[in-house]
Amino acid sequence: MMEATISVWSFSIRSKTKQITMAPYIIARVNVTDSARYAEYMKITPGVISRFGGKFIARGGETETMEGDKESSRVVLIEFPDLAAARAFYHSEEYKQTKVLREGAATAQFVAIEGWSEN
Question: Of 62, 81, 108, 68, which Cα lies nearest the Cα of 10?
């Protein structure tokens, strides 16, 4: 089982207005049941994500649960230029076709979240 804990801060600062804008993310928690089949899904997703301006920030890896129940899922964090791009990626025909590769290989929860900003 692959696991990851993620702490990421991605921001831009406008010096005159003191505006901090954080990128939106999709956080995926994935329970892999068939590693070989899931590997096929993993080969295709980077290209699909990049076509919507997204990029992986974390993609599996070692995790350490700091508080609460031990995280046993594979954790993936994907950054997008805006929440509309994250939504467009997830609901796109291209991703729907790619997602078929994950069927029977893993179950997942995907959550889109806006980054924090201070105006």
Answer: 81
